[in-house]
Amino acid sequence: MTPRTAPRICPLCEATCGLTLVVDRRPGGHGEHVTGARGDAEDVFSHGYICPKGATFPQLDNDPDRLEMPLVRRDGVFVETGWDEALALVVDRLRVVIDTHGGSAVGLYLGNPSAHTLAGTMYAPMLARALGTRNVFSAGTLDQMPKQAAVGYLFGHAGTFAVPDVDRTDHLVVIGANPVVSNGSMTTAADFPGKLNALRHRGGRLTVIDPARTRTARLADTHIAPRPGTDAALLAAVVAGLFEEGLVADDLGGIGEFVLGGDELRREIADLTPERVAAYCDVPAGEIRRLARDIAGAPTAAVYGRMGTSTVEFGTLGCWLIDVVNILTGNLDRPGGVMFPTAPTAPAPRPPRPGKGFRTGRWRSRVSGHPEVAGELPAVAMAEELETTGEGRLHALVTVAGNPVLSAPDGARLAAALDAAELVVCIDPYLNETTRHADVILPPPRPSQSPHFDAVLNNLAVRATVRYSPPVLPLPDGRPDEIGIVARLILGLSGVGVDADPGLVDEQVIAATLAKEVRDPHSPVAGRDVDELVGMLPDAPGHRRRLDMMLRLGAYGDAFGARDGLTFADVLAAPHGIDLGPMRPRLPGILRTASGKVELAPDPLVGDLARLRGAVDSGSGTEPGSLLLVGRRHLRSNNSWMHNLPALRGGTNRCTLQMHPQDAARLGVDGMATVRGPGGALTVPVEITDDIRPGVVSLPHGWGHDDAATRLAVAADDPGVNVNALNDGSRLDPLSGTAVLNGLPVEIAPA
Ligand SMILES: Nc1nc2c(c(=O)[nH]1)N[C@H]1C(S)=C(S)[C@@H](COP(=O)(O)OP(=O)(O)OC[C@H]3O[C@@H](n4cnc5c(=O)[nH]c(N)nc54)[C@H](O)[C@@H]3O)O[C@H]1N2
Ligand SMILES: Nc1nc2c(c(=O)[nH]1)N[C@H]1C(S)=C(S)[C@@H](COP(=O)(O)OP(=O)(O)OC[C@H]3O[C@@H](n4cnc5c(=O)[nH]c(N)nc54)[C@H](O)[C@@H]3O)O[C@H]1N2
Ligand code: SF4
Ligand SMILES: [Mo]
Fold first, then answer.
1. What is the pLDDT at residue 9?
2. In the chain, is it the N or the C terminus that has fewer CB atoms within a 10 Å radius of its CB?
């Protein structure tokens, strides 16, 4: 038999490319496996694009270190256990913790890949409810939580993101992001490199603001290299410059009636002039003023920021000011500016109405009193919550798709706290630096055996499409997929039993959602009969029934037969996806602030400007000879968990400390160096390069695979060092609880 092919959306980064998998019989004839992956030229979103990570799909799928069976720790050693037994054991042991100490004694940590799986997006959040805990943590507070807080205050909801309209903009300003390498984040756009080239070809402009001359910066017309950690000050000065020079767009480009707080903003920010922040940012005032003019003067412009603006001391302020610049220059909600995507499974737009608004601190962490933000507590607080005795202590932790021992600051402390905890359960395919501290590991099956739908990332897509990948290979008998693992835990915890049909979870959601919809006069199914609607859903696995419901209730759906529109059957019939067109204006209907308007100058953000002023005026970190550490990503890497694939090893993907020749000469560093940060010291190979500005050094994260108790044979060969061991986790952006990962002060000496 010749090999067959099957389309599959790539789950490995936010670009969500369509792949064509090649599937062949295994040698010896025992079933099939994935032998190849290439870009799917017919995919309606990615049109054939693929990156080196996507191309390793076969290696990832077939990795011999991938766990096939649950591992249960007995007398200190992991023993392979059957599925029913392992799931029952987990529920029994969670019950003991909950019965003794209450639901809040169990923490839940959701890692990055859970944003890419159906299990992580549509089921794992329900696990928190089944546990009865508010101790929810995620990679978000090592990443984009500042953005969520900022848009929460501006637009009223922490999930309402405006993304750059990269296909139509005339001037893209990229601050603290390297999308040519990362393929974009908090903006889902396949083939970012191609889109930046297309921008240049149509005569558009690219400005990159980054202390490193990244691959993205190399494509730029203008590259500004500020001191790390100073983006909020730089952007505040751009805003001050826009006001001072009369560059604010007339009627904010046509959305003036939907925006409040312009005068207050002007008053509060006017003193943060380019001249005042120039030394702190180490960017000449004239360059900041030119940036303001270049954004205001472009027919359309979009300012886009990521990790370098987010995981810093003033992360929320920086993320807020990015959108403030977009708004003041008339670029919010218009083609070529930044726009709010309309995802196919999001509820259909409703008429404008004020919302509840956004606030934080509805509860606080027990030990340090960190405010909850968007329902989460800071990932860096997990260790202290586990360690610190007393009422309300965390006694157990469940992780889903996370490796916080490497990805969060001070992993050694967290590892010790996990060892001391009563129960640690990890839903994860690998025995790695985190899961090796578990009592039970429940491995999801291979990606080829799992269905795929981007329920979250479609909300960030620069063009609307709908695509679904059914499993390419069948599951072995008796093996649950990841949805089944999470759903059965939920059913076990809620007393229904781990042996129940996982689809029951979906039926509960369907019944509750439809009951609410039919009562909502603005719903496309207002006044209909719930049973009739349930009866229209397909006879299919629970996740498909739920997706069918969401799609039919959504902007492009058929409203359960009430209008022409999509059902899930249409999606199944289109293996390369259905294009739903470019982004469209969404104001004011999308706003959920208490005023029903965009709130430009929310109190918590305006209030935090005082802290920024303090930093600017004290010039902290600008002392001669001081060094700041930033991170970087490599094209052939994915955080901490793809170093086990031979095809992604070596070459440029190396765990080296990049340093400018002037700094290296001054410090006499060559070969190996010792880096000392607030959390400890590491010895690393140095790479001297003028791709990084003086005063800044860069080290990638996700390395440090030297723990003998893991099962990552390839990664262990060239382990690298864990950059987060330099960080004690005490530095946070207070408005979002996000760890400072970029702009960490370090000292360096020859080793
Ligand atoms: N210093 C520094 N630290 C950083 C960063 C940085 O830039 N600098 N970046 C931060 C960012 S942006 C992020 S998002 C975090 C990531 O932090 P985490 O999400 O905690 O870590 P990852 O390395 O993404 O690990 C993902 C885990 O998911 C598992 N996994 C993979 N696929 C699946 C699946 O389909 N299902 C399940 N259940 N598990 C799966 C992997 O085996 C691995 O254990 O790291 C953060 N840490
Ligand atoms: N190949 C690959 N792709 C990935 C990942 C991966 O590990 N590898 N991880 C995925 C994940 S989880 C995420 S969140 C995204 C992240 O996507 P990006 O944010 O695009 O990726 P980073 O490489 O972290 O880019 C951050 C940039 O900010 C710069 N920077 C650091 N500090 C500052 C600062 O203070 N100000 C400014 N202006 N710039 C600063 C750094 O030099 C770096 O170039 O990538 C995703 N895609
Ligand atoms: S850019 Fe690469 S890793 Fe990201 S979705 Fe596309 S193929 Fe997968
Ligand atoms: Mo991330």
1. 98
2. N
How far, in Å, from the CA of 192 to the mean position of ligand 2? 14
Q: Which residue has the tokens 């952006």?
A: 733
CATH number of 165-345+595-609: 3.40.228.10
Residue ID of nearest Cα to ligand 1 atom 42: 430
> How many residues in the chain?
751
What is the Cα–Cα distance from 659 to 305, expressed in whole angstroms?
24
Q: Which atom of ligand 1 is nearest to the CA of 379?
A: 20
Domains of the chain: which residue ranges?
A: 1-62, 71-144+377-442, 165-345+595-609, 622-750
The pTM is what? 0.98
How far is it, in rounded angstroms, from Cα 185 to Cα 174?
Answer: 12
CA distance 289 to 293: 6
Q: Which element (helix H / strand E) includes 349?
A: none
CA atoms within 13 A on the CB side of 174: 35
Cα separation, 645 vs 637, whole angstroms: 10
By alpha-carbon position, which residue is closest to atom 7 of ligand 3?
54
Please say whether the structural domain 622-750 has been given the CATH code 3.40.350.10. no
The ligand 1 atom nearest the CA atom of 427: 38
CA–CA separation, 571 and 573 (whole Å): 5
Cα-to-centroid distance, 456 and ligand 4 (Å): 14
pLDDT tens digits along 295-350? 999 999 999 999 999 999 999 999 999 999 999 999 999 999 999 999 999 999 99
Residues in contact with 51: Cβ distance below 8 Å, sequence separation at least 6, in sequence order: 13, 15, 17, 183, 635
Atom of ligand 2 nearest to the CA of 144: 14
pLDDT in tens, 362-408: 999 999 999 999 999 999 999 999 999 999 999 999 999 999 999 99
Sign of the CA dihedral running 745, 182, 57, 468:
positive
What pLDDT was estimated at residue 161?
98
d(CA 494, CA 498): 9
Token duo for residue 312: 């810093």
Q: What is the mean pLDDT of residues 434-451?
A: 98
Q: Is the CB of 329 under 6 A from ligand 1?
A: no
Rounded distance from Cα 308 to ligand 3 centre (Å): 21
Compute the mean pLDDT over every residue in the chain, rounded to the nearest whole number.
97
Please state, in angstroms and as integers, the Cα–Cα distance from residue 454 to each residue in 1, 179, 338, 451, 464, following that order. Answer: 33, 20, 21, 10, 12
**DSSP state at residue 660:** -
Q: How much is the average pLDDT of 157-168?
A: 98
Which residues lie at CB < 5 A from ion ligand 4? 143
What is the 3 state secondary structure string of 301-336?
CEEEECHHHHCCCCHHHHHHHHHHHHHHCCCECCCC
Percent of the chain with pLDDT over 90: 97
For 309, 612, 639, the CA distances from 209, given in Å and listed in that order, are 10, 19, 23
- With vertex at residue 163, the alpha carbon angle to CA 524 and CA 248, rounded to the nearest 5 degrees, is 110
Q: What pLDDT was estimated at residue 1?
A: 67
Question: What does CATH list as the number for 71-144+377-442?
Answer: 3.40.50.740
Same fold flag, 1-62 and 622-750? no
Q: Closest Cα to residue 454, out of 435, 442, 437, 468?
A: 468
640 CA distance to ligand 1 centroid (A)?
Answer: 6
Yes or no: say if 320 and 606 are a contact pair by the CB < 8 Å rule: no
Mutation pick for ligand 1 pocket among 127, 142, 489 (CB with most ligand atoms within 8 Å):
142
Give 113 Cα–ligand 4 centroid separation in angstroms: 9
- Strand order of the β-sheet with 440-442 is 77-80, 71-74, 440-442, 423-427, 396-400, 106-110, 136-138
Q: Which CATH architecture has domain 1-62?
A: 2-Layer Sandwich (3.30)
> Smallest Cα–Cα separation from 215: which of 525, 632, 502?
632
